[in-house]
């Protein structure tokens, strides 16, 4: 007998028929003698629909009310799934995040889980029940409903698996595993049998939404066996493995594991800004004070010694506010500088632990983009990744060309 935490995403519970299919799947595991905790997302499109309505009413809704609103999507699916299980003879009880004791901090819309009470949950399981928990939500110390950021049901699943010491956390979604890149953009992408936590963290943070980054962090920190699978087809899916379990010396180990991309960032540049000590903190300080996260940063070497250009990226949703802070606070404070912005950019990144021990990955990466006439606007690297900012219109071409050039295309590997 094993204990599984199974998370089903929005598409997997997107209609009454699909909810019934999830119930059948869960029943299958239970019939085989396993204990199951199910975590569900809202029906696909529901969270966006709720956010849309909020914005029609107020373009600056308070984060507390947003959480109160968007958490309702998951409350619908937990109850419907419990009813579907009852209908086929499976005892089940649904719980909201707050009922099940998912305690978070008070950072509304991006709260972090601090503690999970498992006693009652465990009692239900021992009593033969399937426990159905609302993903994406928790409760803070004052009893306010909080949510964990978009895609947060993954994190609910992994956190529950960690707290219950489950044998495996299974993330059921609309693709049958983690691919070398988003299979919806590159039809030649291939499913990976395994990927390391470290690589998955990079892919998730660089834009691959197949797993929320915090879910991967949890899995790494608490050693939760984590697998991504299809809700619609069978198959082994992709197992996220500990970094130490990867055999980097194996000749068959690919150099590159995957390509991530996102068009959800915007770039801001302060041209001709006075090159004085502390300039970076005077530019970025007020932005950080507004709780805006900065991603890539490039400061030019000042050609004449007195002036420099400073460029950085933020999430597209923070673009307008960042522009305003630069215009109204930073430029007057620095006493100069010319502001440029561009929100038609994309970030494309190559990830692989094999890069550590191989030279020449960066030069090949740049050559591939040059051959396609794609101009690189910014670059950032770490031991296991290279990211570039390019014009948004070139994103798909860049992903496909890099995928092919680095030998990730399906036919290439099959031919080997
Ligand atoms: P769910 O609603 O089940 O949480 P998501 O839409 O959040 O599903 O995540 C699954 C989607 O992630 C896939 O449909 C796919 O388009 C996208 N995706 C992006 N990068 C990858 C990747 N490397 N491998 C698999 N899927 C990816
Ligand atoms: N329903 C939430 C969202 O759309 C959480 C999730 O699906 O993981 O972001
Ligand atoms: Mg998701």
From TrEMBL:
InterPro entries: AceGlu_kinase-like_sf, ACT-like_dom_sf, ACT_Aspartokinase, ACT_dom, AKii-LysC-BS, Asp/Glu/Uridylate_kinase, Asp_kin_monofn, Asp_kinase. Keywords: Amino-acid biosynthesis, ATP-binding, Kinase, Lysine biosynthesis, Nucleotide-binding, Transferase. One of its GO terms (molecular function) is ATP binding. The keyword Oxidoreductase does not apply. It catalyses: L-aspartate + ATP = 4-phospho-L-aspartate + ADP. Pathway: Amino-acid biosynthesis; L-methionine biosynthesis via de novo pathway; L-homoserine from L-aspartate: step 1/3; Amino-acid biosynthesis; L-lysine biosynthesis via DAP pathway; (S)-tetrahydrodipicolinate from L-aspartate: step 1/4; Amino-acid biosynthesis; L-threonine biosynthesis; L-threonine from L-aspartate: step 1/5. It is an enzyme of class 2 (transferase). ATP binds at residues 7-10, 173-174, 179, 184, 209-210. Belongs to the aspartokinase family. This is Aspartokinase. The gene is ask.
């Amino acid at each position: 007998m094993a204990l599984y935490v199974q998370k089903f995403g929005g598409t997997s519970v997107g209609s009454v028929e699909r909810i019934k299919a999830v119930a059948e799947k869960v029943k299958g595991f239970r019939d085989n003698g396993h204990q199951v905790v199910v975590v569900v997302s809202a029906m696909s499109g529901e969270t966006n629909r709720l956010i849309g309505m909020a914005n029609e009413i107020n373009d600056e809704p308070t984060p507390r009310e947003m959480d109160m609103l968007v958490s309702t999507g998951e409350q619908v699916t937990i109850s419907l799934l419990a009813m579907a299980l009852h209908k086929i003879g499976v005892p089940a009880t649904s719980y909201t995040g707050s009922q099940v004791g998912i305690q978070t901090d008070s950072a509304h819309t991006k709260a972090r889980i601090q503690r999970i009470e498992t006693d009652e949950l465990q009692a239900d399981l021992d009593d033969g029940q399937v426990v159905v928990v609302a993903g994406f939500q928790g409760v803070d110390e004052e009893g306010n409903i909080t949510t964990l950021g978009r895609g947060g049901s993954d994190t609910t699943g992994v956190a529950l698996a960690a707290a219950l010491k489950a044998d495996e956390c299974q993330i059921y979604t609309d693709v049958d595993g983690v691919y070398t890149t988003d299979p919806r953009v590159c039809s030649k992408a291939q499913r990976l049998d395994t990927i390391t936590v470290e690589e998955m963290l990079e892919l998730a943070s660089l834009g691959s939404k197949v797993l929320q980054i915090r879910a991967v962090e949890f899995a790494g920190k608490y050693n939760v066996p984590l697998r991504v699978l299809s809700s619609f087809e069978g198959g082994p899916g992709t197992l996220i493995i500990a970094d130490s379990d990867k055999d980097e010396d194996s000749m068959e180990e690919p150099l590159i594991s995957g390509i991530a991309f996102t068009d959800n960032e915007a770039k801001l540049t302060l041209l001709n800004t006075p090159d004085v000590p502390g300039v970076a903190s005077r530019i970025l300080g007020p932005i950080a004070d507004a709780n805006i996260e900065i991603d890539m940063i490039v400061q030019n070497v000042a050609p004449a010694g007195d002036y420099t250009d400073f460029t950085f990226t933020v999430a597209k949703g923070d673009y307008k506010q960042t522009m305003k802070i630069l215009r109204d606070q930073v430029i007057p404070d620095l006493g100069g500088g010319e502001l440029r912005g561009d929100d038609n950019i994309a970030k494309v990144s190559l990830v692989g632990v094999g890069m550590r021990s191989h030279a020449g990955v960066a030069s090949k990466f740049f050559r591939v983009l040059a051959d396609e006439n794609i101009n690189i606007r910014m670059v950032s690297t770490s031991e296991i990744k290279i990211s570039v900012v390019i014009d948004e219109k070139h994103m798909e071409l860049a992903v496909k060309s890099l995928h092919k050039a680095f030998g990730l295309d399906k036919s290439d590997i099959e031919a080997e």
